[in-house]
From TrEMBL:
GO MF annotation, one: DNA binding
InterPro entries the UniProt entry points to: Sig_transdc_resp-reg_C-effctor, Tscrpt_reg_LuxR_C, WalR-like
Protein name as it appears in the record: DNA-binding response regulator
SUPFAM superfamilies, A to Z: C-terminal effector domain of the bipartite response regulators
UniProt KW keywords: DNA-binding, Transcription, Transcription regulation
Keyword rRNA-binding appears in the UniProt entry: no
Pfam families in alphabetical order: GerE (PF00196)
Highest taxon of the lineage: Bacteria
Amino acid sequence: MERVKVVIQATDPITYVGLSSYLQQRPEVVVVEQRDQADVQVLSTERVGPEALTRLRNSAADGGLPTVLMTGELGEAPLLTLVECHVVAILPKNSVTGDQLVDCIVAAAAGNGVMPRDVLGTLLRRIKVLQQEVLAPNGLSASGLEPREVDVLRLIAEGWGTEEIAKELAYSERTVKNVIFNMTSRLHLRNRAHAVAYALRAGVI
Protein backbone atom coordinates (compact mmCIF):
# COMPACT_ATOMS: atom_id res chain seq x y z
CA MET A 1 0.00 0.00 0.00
CA GLU A 2 1.29 3.45 -0.90
CA ARG A 3 2.05 5.55 2.15
CA VAL A 4 -0.25 8.51 2.76
CA LYS A 5 1.53 11.87 2.76
CA VAL A 6 0.37 13.91 5.75
CA VAL A 7 1.08 17.48 6.79
CA ILE A 8 0.64 18.43 10.44
CA GLN A 9 -0.64 21.66 11.93
CA ALA A 10 -0.96 22.27 15.66
CA THR A 11 -1.79 25.30 17.74
CA ASP A 12 1.03 24.48 20.16
CA PRO A 13 4.60 23.36 19.35
CA ILE A 14 4.73 20.46 21.83
CA THR A 15 1.77 18.75 20.20
CA TYR A 16 3.30 19.33 16.77
CA VAL A 17 6.56 17.66 17.79
CA GLY A 18 4.72 14.75 19.43
CA LEU A 19 2.50 14.10 16.42
CA SER A 20 5.40 14.36 13.99
CA SER A 21 7.52 11.98 16.03
CA TYR A 22 4.74 9.41 16.32
CA LEU A 23 3.55 9.50 12.72
CA GLN A 24 7.09 9.29 11.35
CA GLN A 25 7.31 5.85 12.95
CA ARG A 26 4.16 4.55 11.28
CA PRO A 27 4.55 2.60 8.02
CA GLU A 28 1.16 3.74 6.69
CA VAL A 29 2.06 7.43 6.49
CA VAL A 30 4.91 9.77 5.70
CA VAL A 31 5.10 13.26 7.21
CA VAL A 32 5.76 16.12 4.79
CA GLU A 33 6.40 19.79 5.48
CA GLN A 34 4.35 21.49 2.75
CA ARG A 35 0.61 21.27 2.11
CA ASP A 36 1.11 21.04 -1.64
CA GLN A 37 3.03 17.78 -1.06
CA ALA A 38 0.37 16.21 1.16
CA ASP A 39 -2.65 13.97 0.67
CA VAL A 40 -4.16 14.70 4.09
CA GLN A 41 -3.83 17.39 6.73
CA VAL A 42 -3.98 16.82 10.49
CA LEU A 43 -4.89 19.82 12.63
CA SER A 44 -4.59 19.54 16.41
CA THR A 45 -6.10 22.21 18.65
CA GLU A 46 -7.44 22.45 22.19
CA ARG A 47 -10.61 24.14 20.96
CA VAL A 48 -12.10 25.15 17.63
CA GLY A 49 -11.67 28.88 18.11
CA PRO A 50 -10.66 31.76 15.84
CA GLU A 51 -7.06 30.56 15.38
CA ALA A 52 -8.07 27.05 14.33
CA LEU A 53 -10.81 28.36 12.02
CA THR A 54 -8.36 30.76 10.39
CA ARG A 55 -5.94 27.90 9.72
CA LEU A 56 -8.74 25.82 8.21
CA ARG A 57 -10.02 28.66 6.03
CA ASN A 58 -6.51 29.42 4.79
CA SER A 59 -6.01 25.77 3.92
CA ALA A 60 -9.35 25.65 2.09
CA ALA A 61 -8.46 28.82 0.17
CA ASP A 62 -5.25 27.13 -1.00
CA GLY A 63 -7.25 24.33 -2.58
CA GLY A 64 -8.11 22.36 0.52
CA LEU A 65 -6.92 19.01 1.77
CA PRO A 66 -9.02 16.36 3.50
CA THR A 67 -8.49 17.34 7.12
CA VAL A 68 -8.45 15.23 10.27
CA LEU A 69 -9.32 17.53 13.17
CA MET A 70 -8.13 16.61 16.66
CA THR A 71 -9.69 18.82 19.30
CA GLY A 72 -10.07 18.82 23.04
CA GLU A 73 -13.27 20.84 22.87
CA LEU A 74 -15.65 21.13 19.95
CA GLY A 75 -18.17 23.26 21.83
CA GLU A 76 -20.39 25.36 19.59
CA ALA A 77 -18.06 25.08 16.62
CA PRO A 78 -19.72 25.94 13.30
CA LEU A 79 -19.93 22.40 11.94
CA LEU A 80 -21.02 23.46 8.46
CA THR A 81 -17.98 25.73 8.28
CA LEU A 82 -15.76 22.80 9.24
CA VAL A 83 -17.27 20.73 6.44
CA GLU A 84 -16.77 23.60 3.98
CA CYS A 85 -13.12 23.68 5.07
CA HIS A 86 -12.74 19.99 4.12
CA VAL A 87 -12.79 18.55 7.65
CA VAL A 88 -13.68 14.88 7.10
CA ALA A 89 -12.84 13.46 10.52
CA ILE A 90 -13.13 14.77 14.08
CA LEU A 91 -11.29 13.04 16.90
CA PRO A 92 -11.19 13.71 20.67
CA LYS A 93 -7.67 14.96 21.25
CA ASN A 94 -7.43 13.75 24.85
CA SER A 95 -8.53 10.15 24.28
CA VAL A 96 -7.75 9.24 20.67
CA THR A 97 -5.28 6.40 20.18
CA GLY A 98 -2.46 6.36 17.68
CA ASP A 99 -4.12 3.57 15.71
CA GLN A 100 -7.38 5.53 15.53
CA LEU A 101 -5.55 8.58 14.23
CA VAL A 102 -3.73 6.61 11.54
CA ASP A 103 -6.95 4.81 10.54
CA CYS A 104 -8.64 8.21 10.10
CA ILE A 105 -5.75 9.55 8.03
CA VAL A 106 -5.90 6.53 5.72
CA ALA A 107 -9.70 6.82 5.50
CA ALA A 108 -9.46 10.53 4.67
CA ALA A 109 -6.96 9.84 1.89
CA ALA A 110 -9.41 7.30 0.45
CA GLY A 111 -12.20 9.89 0.39
CA ASN A 112 -14.00 8.67 3.50
CA GLY A 113 -14.99 10.45 6.68
CA VAL A 114 -15.12 9.64 10.38
CA MET A 115 -17.41 11.61 12.71
CA PRO A 116 -18.49 10.88 16.30
CA ARG A 117 -22.18 9.97 16.50
CA ASP A 118 -23.14 13.07 18.46
CA VAL A 119 -21.29 15.34 16.02
CA LEU A 120 -22.87 13.60 13.03
CA GLY A 121 -26.32 13.97 14.56
CA THR A 122 -25.78 17.67 15.22
CA LEU A 123 -24.45 18.17 11.69
CA LEU A 124 -27.48 16.47 10.14
CA ARG A 125 -29.84 18.62 12.23
CA ARG A 126 -28.07 21.78 11.11
CA ILE A 127 -28.23 20.69 7.48
CA LYS A 128 -31.97 20.12 7.91
CA VAL A 129 -32.38 23.65 9.31
CA LEU A 130 -30.32 25.01 6.41
CA GLN A 131 -32.56 23.19 3.95
CA GLN A 132 -35.79 24.36 5.61
CA GLU A 133 -34.87 27.96 6.40
CA VAL A 134 -32.43 28.96 3.66
CA LEU A 135 -32.51 26.67 0.63
CA ALA A 136 -36.17 25.65 0.34
CA PRO A 137 -37.57 29.22 0.58
CA ASN A 138 -35.30 30.11 -2.35
CA GLY A 139 -36.31 27.09 -4.42
CA LEU A 140 -32.99 25.31 -3.89
CA SER A 141 -31.93 21.95 -2.52
CA ALA A 142 -28.71 20.85 -0.84
CA SER A 143 -27.44 19.91 -4.30
CA GLY A 144 -27.79 23.53 -5.43
CA LEU A 145 -30.35 22.53 -8.05
CA GLU A 146 -33.80 24.06 -8.38
CA PRO A 147 -36.79 21.69 -8.69
CA ARG A 148 -37.39 22.54 -12.34
CA GLU A 149 -33.69 22.00 -13.09
CA VAL A 150 -34.00 18.52 -11.61
CA ASP A 151 -37.07 17.89 -13.80
CA VAL A 152 -35.18 18.93 -16.92
CA LEU A 153 -32.10 16.89 -16.02
CA ARG A 154 -34.18 13.80 -15.32
CA LEU A 155 -35.56 13.96 -18.86
CA ILE A 156 -32.16 14.69 -20.40
CA ALA A 157 -30.87 11.59 -18.62
CA GLU A 158 -33.65 9.63 -20.36
CA GLY A 159 -32.35 10.83 -23.72
CA TRP A 160 -35.03 13.44 -24.40
CA GLY A 161 -34.29 16.44 -26.61
CA THR A 162 -35.15 20.08 -25.98
CA GLU A 163 -38.43 19.99 -27.92
CA GLU A 164 -39.63 16.84 -26.15
CA ILE A 165 -38.73 18.25 -22.72
CA ALA A 166 -40.58 21.48 -23.47
CA LYS A 167 -43.75 19.60 -24.41
CA GLU A 168 -43.55 17.29 -21.40
CA LEU A 169 -43.06 20.11 -18.88
CA ALA A 170 -45.28 22.65 -20.66
CA TYR A 171 -42.35 25.02 -21.16
CA SER A 172 -41.23 26.82 -24.26
CA GLU A 173 -38.06 25.50 -25.87
CA ARG A 174 -36.41 28.81 -25.01
CA THR A 175 -37.28 28.29 -21.33
CA VAL A 176 -35.72 24.82 -21.37
CA LYS A 177 -32.55 26.21 -22.94
CA ASN A 178 -32.45 29.03 -20.38
CA VAL A 179 -32.88 26.57 -17.50
CA ILE A 180 -29.95 24.53 -18.78
CA PHE A 181 -27.78 27.58 -19.48
CA ASN A 182 -28.40 29.18 -16.07
CA MET A 183 -27.78 25.89 -14.26
CA THR A 184 -24.55 25.04 -16.06
CA SER A 185 -23.24 28.60 -15.65
CA ARG A 186 -24.08 28.80 -11.94
CA LEU A 187 -22.59 25.41 -11.09
CA HIS A 188 -19.66 25.67 -13.55
CA LEU A 189 -20.75 22.60 -15.52
CA ARG A 190 -19.36 22.13 -19.01
CA ASN A 191 -22.37 20.72 -20.84
CA ARG A 192 -25.57 18.68 -20.49
CA ALA A 193 -23.72 15.43 -19.88
CA HIS A 194 -21.70 17.04 -17.11
CA ALA A 195 -24.91 18.41 -15.57
CA VAL A 196 -26.53 14.96 -15.60
CA ALA A 197 -23.43 13.45 -13.99
CA TYR A 198 -23.53 16.16 -11.30
CA ALA A 199 -27.19 15.42 -10.54
CA LEU A 200 -26.51 11.68 -10.39
CA ARG A 201 -23.66 12.18 -7.92
CA ALA A 202 -25.89 14.46 -5.83
CA GLY A 203 -28.53 11.71 -5.79
CA VAL A 204 -31.36 13.89 -7.12
CA ILE A 205 -32.08 11.89 -10.28
